[in-house]
Amino acid sequence: MERLLIEGGRRLEGTVQICGAKNAALPQLAAALLSPEPLTLLNLPDVGDIRSMLQLLEHYGAVIPQRSGASVTVDPAGVVNREAPYDTVRRMRATILVLGPLLARFGHARVSQPGGCAIGARPVDLHIKALTAMGAEISLDRGAIDARAPAGLKGARIVFGSPSVGATETAMMAAVLARGETEIMNAAREPEVADLAACLVAMGARIEGAGTHRILIQGDTAFRKARHEIIPDRVEAGTYAIAAAITGGHLELTGARLEHLSAVAEALEAAGVQIWPTDRGLMVSRTGRLRGIDIASEPYPGFPTDLQAQFMALMSIAEGASVIRETVFENRFMHVPELSRLGANITLQGATALVRGVPGLKGAPVMATDLRASVCLVLAALAAEGETVVNRIYHLDRGYETLDKKLVRCGAHIRRLQD
Ligand SMILES: CC(=O)N[C@H]1[C@@H](OP(=O)(O)OP(=O)(O)OC[C@H]2O[C@@H](n3ccc(=O)[nH]c3=O)[C@H](O)[C@@H]2O)O[C@H](CO)[C@@H](O)[C@@H]1O
Ligand SMILES: C=C(OP(=O)(O)O)C(=O)O
Description:
It contains 14 helices and 22 strands. The chain starts with a strand and ends with a strand. It is globular, with a radius of gyration of 21 Å. Helix 6 links the parallel strand 8 (157-159) and strand 9. It has helices at 22-31, 48-59, 86-91, 99-106, 125-133, 165-175, 191-202, 234-246, 262-270, 308-315, 335-341, 371-383, 394-399, 403-409; strands spanning 3-7, 13-17, 39-42, 72-74, 108-112, 137-141, 144-148, 157-159, 181-185, 206-208, 214-218, 226-229, 250-254, 274-277, 281-285, 295-297, 321-326, 345-349, 352-356, 365-367, 387-391, 413-417. It folds into two domains: 3-19 and 232-417, Enolpyruvate transferase domain (UDP-n-acetylglucosamine1-carboxyvinyl-transferase, Chain); 22-229, Enolpyruvate transferase domain (UDP-n-acetylglucosamine1-carboxyvinyl-transferase, Chain, Alpha-beta prism). It is α+β, with helices and mostly antiparallel strands. It is an enzyme of class 2 (transferase). Keywords: Cell cycle, Cell division, Cell shape, Cell wall biogenesis/degradation, Cytoplasm, Peptidoglycan synthesis, Pyruvate, Transferase. Pathway: Cell wall biogenesis; peptidoglycan biosynthesis. The active site is at 117 (proton donor).
């Protein structure tokens, strides 16, 4: 098992290249299954989840010639319909995103039911609701979701009770092959949803309103060969912004887009961090003291749940107290006991954490539990005095491309240890 040995207390300074967004790339790779025509994606991050999704596409018979740099072409002409294997679904929940495309293209799809994971129960009822509204018959059978629409899907009005990124993506992908028009109400507004729409439009789909609460899709798409560049990863950018802030450093994040990070920039500024756009991306700098501020994670454009853990690490060394509320997932505080091992003073009550800032953290062995919890421990370790060992880092490699190398180039002391 690999571990990271981090010697903290070093100010970060330099440039970090931000990759394409993992959470935009995953649904776009799934969307390749809709069409018989090749799809080329540019700016694809080289991270574990993307490698798993590419393997899954190959399992279905898609041909993926050697990746060249950050671009990949998926040729789905020979795709055959078979069950998504439990082993892949277990490793990565985003596998559920192949359900809509396969059902829409073949009239039948079977995907192992994703298990619960460390951040909450994460049901798939809204995905099922959307496909059922389009005429699919869905049953849960021997641990799998079995969806059938032998006569094809038909356009529908889908009203989500609460916005879901994944269910909006499932509905949108299925709708491009359904007969007639689909209207999605209370759609998720995340940039990754809008980027999936842009990719589908490049493939020939007709979609309006992605990025707003109401999305309109005309079905019966005539697909064409397509090429699409994935948006930069706002969660990766936010993570490095917090790395600059927590070490009192100065980082330029090339490729990052401020417009995708408004709520995060606002929170960082309120906490005493400077953040401004440059020709190449974003600059983040902190010279003064950090102040404790209150945040709540919310659907976009609110503060992202995928940066809540990292922000908590920052608040743990701020002056004063900070109240952090998690409103998206019911159990996304697995990092709290581990941050406490580094000396943070955090009290949990339900979905709220009260963080009382301490003058400094001290290195200790900690255990990573999920992707963002893992990186929050790396950030805390960068600020801590002495050595921290972050164990079980395979979670990190699911979502961050060469995290340790990028940090080392900016002055961090990190070594990857193998057992
Ligand atoms: C691969 C990917 O893009 N992952 C992101 C995606 O996850 P994901 O698409 O799984 O997240 P959702 O937006 O669907 O989840 C939002 C909330 O809706 C609930 N829900 C969701 C679906 C459903 O059928 N029923 C239901 O109750 C979830 O449990 C959660 O409480 O958006 C999350 C919220 O921004 C991010 O944290 C994840 O990093
Ligand atoms: C929770 C995340 O991913 P997933 O939805 O694939 O678990 C994430 O990217 O932070």
